[in-house]
Batch of 2 targets.
Target 1
Amino acid sequence: MVEEVQLHEDALIEVLARLPVKSLIRFTCVCKLWRSVIKSPEFASKHYAARLSLKDHNEYDSFLASFFPACSISIFCYKTMSFETAFKIRPAVAAYKPPRFDISHRDIITSCFIFGPCNGLFLLRLWKGLYNSVIVLLLWNPATREVFKIPFPDENFGYACIDVGFGFDHVANDYKVIFFNGHHANSSLVNLYSLAANCWRQVDAGLYFDVRKKTVTCKYSSLSISSNGCKAHFFSTDRMNGDKSGLASFDMVDELFIETYLPDGFTRGGGLLLLGFSSSNKHDYPTIYGTKYEQVLDTFEMLIWVLDRGYGPKGVWNIQQSITLPDYVGCRQVMLGNNTDIVFANGIDDVSVYNWTTKERKMLQIPGDGEHVIGYIESLISIEGFIRQLPSVEEDHMSVEAEIGPQGCQQLDHSSVELDPPELQSLLDRFSAEIQERNEEDNDSDSSTDSAFLMPKGKYIGEYGAVYIDYEADLLFGPYRNNECERLCRLPYCLREVNQPLISKPCTF
Amino acid sequence: MASSSSSSLSRVVVKSSDNNLFVVNKKVASQSQLLKQCIDNMEEKGTNDVILIPLSNVTSNILTLVLEYCEKHADFADDDNNNQELKQWDHEFLKKFDYATLNSLTMAADYMVTKSLLNLCCQFIADSIKDLTVQQIRQIFDIKNDFTPQEEADIKNENAWAFR
């Protein structure tokens, strides 16, 4: 008797929905039927829903950790606690003049802030450039490596805006980004980007910001991992009300803010506040993690509060858990991991996993400062698949390189004649070895995984990632350094996987 | 398992596509929503006769396996404590089969609406194929490559990282 081997389409979809994203992307070239199934948006939703349903409370596939001075983001597999892959922000041109005068690419992308995840997608906010910083907003799906640069209406658009958040409008089937100045603007207008329309518009969000009365910051905002993550959350401080802290949640569907006061323990000096979500919470209400220092016992306590009964005045915060932490968890970033784990970055040199029942700590041996640690569940969702208005064709970035690459070098060669040649030469020699060493890390062909996390050696790193200044050299090199920075800033950058060649059409910014 | 009333059925007879008959205890049959629906319909009508349910899509080989699974799960239905043991059994149960049998079992589970078996099979197949190459997948599922070499190369280049 001959058994039927091929799966029917229904059964095939059921099997495929249980595969990891990487396997699915590989299997797009099995045959046309498999490709059409895997590429369909309906399948992406089904796949994400299946992955969510397989998870228990607060369980993640992976988590990412960012290392700001190196402008890199690494992803760890939660199951094995092992390093999976790393991404870095580097020039998108394969052959170009490497940085000189003690500058590195890492000085050019001066900040990288990560928001999300929402259905497996993240929003990245970058500051690019040293003297005339430009904001860049990117949508990113780390599982599929898709990066999409959100276009700005004009080049000055980014300056006036500070706080940013994003979420999914499940009614319009659209991802939206809210971008506003919560510190200074005396207005309730916010800028709202719709991915489907691929454009910005101004919206009256119903919350009036006034620096003297109410400010909103997104410092620790993060989003839902569930499929209806339709709110972007910000912490607000109400000065009129005795610095009462609140949670300002912007609803992506009705495009309005709703404010919920935070639990009393956290109004002032309540320690670290973080936002999170639990996947088991069907209402998709946020969870707050707060750390509190117990003076008497000399311990840190982490309290986990879950919002109940809705947003706004009717909302009630319930303590879900209280965990005593050892003092070394006085950390910058915490994430509630799977089961009884806490993943935290101490803000200096390590990301660790702490199990609060066994009280064991496992260090992940990743150098870097760990600006963020965020758990997520991978998804196949395509960002560009949501755009109904296709973006206009961007200018060819290779021509930019051809124009500025050689020119920049010529300028340096010319002007070196005007200075004292021996002195300049000796300084150049002194730095060339160091610079070479550092640039080798950035070299595309042979960059090792670890080098993506290394900080430039032996140099002071300013709080805002400023250039590492050697004053003696600076006197001589000042003008050249400026030129060099300008040259590097004008290079197209991209977010790409470490150890992988540049893809043919990288998303550049 | 005692019947709750004299009018309810205790057994059904299931017929495979190759005309073999299987006598199935009601509790076992209830693991399949399809069979359960048939039984419920007959009970509503008040029939006391043993009913015959023909399954035109399932061969006797596969039906034997589905019933083996249903029997095991019916035994454990009232016992929440042995979840781990049941999981272990599930795994051992599926481990014996080749892909052809697994695929047939998946489709039988789908047809007979045995949700837990369907989930189990799909997850088992997914787990065992996730690290395979495209070529291996084509062999296992007997799939003809309908891309031109150029198309296939383009897809591979586009996502080179996934082929490592």
Target 2
Amino acid sequence: MDCCTCNESDKSRQEYLAPLQTILDGYEGKEKDLIPILQESQEEYGYLAEEVLKEIASNLDLSFGQVYGVVTFYSQFHLEPRGENVIRICMGTACHVKGGDKILDKLKEELEIDDGETTDDLKFTLEAVACIGACGLAPVIMINDNTHGRLVPKDIPEILTQYE
Amino acid sequence: MGTVSIIIDGQQVEVEQEATLLEAASKLGIEIPTLCYHPDLTLHGSCRVCVVENEETGDLLASCVTPVTDGMKILTHTAKVRSARRINVELLLANHPNDCLGCDRNGTCELQDIAFDLGITEIRFAGEMKDYPVDDTGPALKKEPNKCILCGRCVRVCEEIQGVFALDFTDRGFQSVITTAFDHSHAEVNCANCGQCATVCPTGAITELRYREKVWQAIEDESKHVIVQTAPSIQSAIGEEFGLEPGTVATGKLAAALRRLGFDKVFSTDFAADLTIMEEGNEFIKKLKGDKELPHITSCCPGWVKFCEHNYHDLLDNLSTAKSPMSMFSSITKSYYAEKMGLDPEDIYTVAVMPCTAKKFEMEREELKENRVQSTDGVLTTRELARMIKEMGVDFVSLEEEEYDQMLGTSTGAATIFGATGGVTEAALRTVKEKITGEPLDRLDLGFEGINEETVKIGDRNIKVAIANGLANATEILEGVRAGKSEYDFIEIMACPMGCVGGGGQPLPTSTEIKCKRAEGLKSIDKSEAIRKSHENPEVKKLYNDYLGEPLSGYSHHLLHTDYQPRDRN
């Protein structure tokens, strides 16, 4: 039962949840479908909002707490909106030795966000990761599927403009 | 089912094939420490405190989850085992706050006991401390995740026994924390406030939200007339806090102790339990006559009521509208009692001693407020009351027995058995049968099982009764009702295993055996009570004659009945 008494917000809520309903309709409403549903929903919305998770829980006859437990277990799921561009900065050994931390500092400075955060304009999300397997290019970052290697801090502003 | 033979510490033992090493050792009287293990819950095997050694391979095995195999040779207390246990506990202590002196579970903490038993004298490892905020927004429970050792007992009791699923493990690795969805406070989620999580928690990570300080303040406030009522199940449980055997009936000492604390009047919720039966019994009779749809479902358990509001909106109309004994009692203190005593209801402060954490939530329910004012001002659990008695320096065991005060203090056997599963049903049917047929009800002697079904003949009608304790058991019955497959007339539901004797606010440690003894204690009172039927309680009769009129009359309906609200499932 929906306890929202405001018709206006109820309507916009329904509109917001309409794509989710289409996703849910493609499954049988069984517990085993939870992860594919979460993946598709994240694909659709960019992240997993509280009301989306609540709806998924009700549909699969699971509790909100159980669904939240699963979502927070897997690093592939996100509870906050994500940037249009995801910057992954390598913090592995080679990148560390080659000054990866200075690149991270520069990215933080340019974007005015911390590791794991997203810019207010939803353009960029910054994530420090363990290793992206391109040690020969250290220090290295990936923006979406593109690799930018052998960086020095002053390269960063120009690289970012390519994505704005 | 076959048996196997194994050797533990040189002694041979025959056990069932499915048994675990822990069960086999227990059969020999060998004690193995445990933390994440709980006899009422599924096995988890996460804490590794119960490790034992395989004599042949030297392997360390978690005894709580390792099944026996024929011919196994096990050693339970070798130097290697003791050292492993100690290190495992030391690692738990490495990021534990270790502020035992200020902890509510000081003295009843299993982690503390195990550390002592294993001979841990210093905390060698300094781990990175957790830094989660305390959630004391209530209304019933307080959560301190920094004290949590991730044994998962609370998660399992909430899922397996209660079917609520409010808590779960979230995040992973060092960030793992047991919490609600989005860390919402218990007030915002589907928690029933039953407090079973608090009773199975081995540490102080989940406790009741304390009300002691506020009650002390009220007692010390000269302008307040402070009344206390004690729920039926307190009398056979509170003795445990003072070293008495579980099930010891300590009604007289309880009344005496409450006077020593400084309460102005010492009354019994049992009185109001009789009142509940008068209202609810008559409500049921009306339903039997076709006034409203059956089954009639009891509503005195606040954990169950909230669970129903979240999960069974369609059955809310079947709930008895009679307030719980606690809330009826409190309403009477601020109306009838105030009038009789010439007191301003605003000067009356009504405290309830309950076996229950959910009563702290019930106390704050909007539906139970009169002109936006709560009728119950403070709820203490059995454990909290015991702490107050100790703080006051009262030697509980040597107290001379005293009586409850007159006017709202008399109870019957029927009221007393409210405190154990099946009690409300038996009490109600005693009055209902006599009202309808004029004949007394034979003893029902219902058992303490999780689900109990009976058929009781009243006149020419067979009344089908179902009794459930533990919310997961309740679900089983209610799904049948929802599907139209059951023919029950009367359903009693108590959220806690075995009813209030197993309540979330009762003394710790607890076990099925202890709960049984508490229930037997209540039954023994019922047997010896001169008056065993609610409708014969002289103070209740007087209340109707002088003040309320008939049960279900306009005035009693206003004062003694309530309604419910549907809530989101999650």
